[in-house]
Amino acid sequence: MGTDATLWFMEVRTLQRGEWPLWRQLRFDALSDSPDAFRPTLEEEQDQSDEWWIDIIETTIEHPRGGLWIAEVDSVPVGMLFARIDTDHAVVEVGAMWVHPSVRGRGVGSGLLSAALEWARSRGVRHAELWVTESNSAAMGLYERYGFETTTDNQPLRSGSDSTVRKMESAIWFHPEHRDAG
Ligand SMILES: CC(C)(COP(=O)(O)OP(=O)(O)OC[C@H]1O[C@@H](n2cnc3c(N)ncnc32)[C@H](O)[C@@H]1OP(=O)(O)O)[C@@H](O)C(=O)NCCC(=O)NCCS
């Protein structure tokens, strides 16, 4: 993978049917790299069967209110994001956001979030929400850049953990620079 800015080619796209092993590998990488950024543990998800992965991934891909996005740099998968619109088409929840450490700080997370929020906004959704570990300043910084604000809702990351996750909410903007356009 080229890291020189002149060789940088990043693509964000939706995961396609049959690509469930790719999502699973990214998820294992994410849980291994950032265990406190996600509620489930690596051990829990490694214990799941192929059928479990196929079911949750294919169901999400095929559902009109669900989507999975991946980011590729020079054709190498380096990032992931999940989104689901509620039954009232009022709110989109985003989650499972992860970018490989080797390409952080170069707009990959922004690209993923923009794609999912644009997808939701094009379906008439005007609000977004997510949960983030309170100590995760990088993720909170990214979300704040997209207009997310912290709410009073919080809860333990998982049973037995000292970490706390906090809910953040936002009106949906296609891109930070477009906030004023509503
Ligand atoms: C959070 C994460 C997805 C950000 O991805 P990224 O590709 O590095 O983000 P971007 O390069 O698009 O950064 C976008 C904005 O986020 C904020 N940001 C990103 N990294 C940051 C950091 N280390 N500290 C503070 N703000 C940060 C900045 O506002 C940045 O905008 P800027 O570059 O104009 O300053 C990435 O750090 C990651 O995967 N972390 C581990 C997993 C995780 O925490 N997932 C979130 C679960 S809720």
The CATH C-level name is: Alpha Beta
* General shape: globular
Give the helix/strand class: alpha+beta
The set of bound ligands, ions and cofactors reads: coenzyme A
* Biggest sheet record: 7 strands, mixed
* CATH architecture group name: 3-Layer(aba) Sandwich
And the CATH topology?
Aminopeptidase
Features:
182 residues, alpha+beta, Aminopeptidase, seven-stranded mixed beta sheet, 5 helices, binds coenzyme A
Describe the model.
- The chain has one domain: Aminopeptidase (3-Layer(aba) Sandwich).
- Strands 1-2-3-4-5-7-6 form a 7-stranded mixed β-sheet, with helices on both faces.
- It is α+β, with helices and mostly antiparallel strands and 182 residues long.
- Helix 1 (20-33) packs across helix 3.
- The protein contains 5 helices and 7 strands, in the order E-H-H-H-E-E-E-H-E-H-E-E.
- It has helices at residues 20-33, 42-46, 50-62, 108-121, 137-145; strands spanning 10-14, 66-73, 76-85, 91-99, 127-133, 149-156, 164-171.
- It is globular.
- A hairpin with a 5-residue loop joins strand 3 (76-85) and strand 4.
- Helix content is 30%, strand content 30%.
- Coenzyme A is lined by residues 34, 37, 97-99, 104-110, 132, 136-139, 141-142, 145.
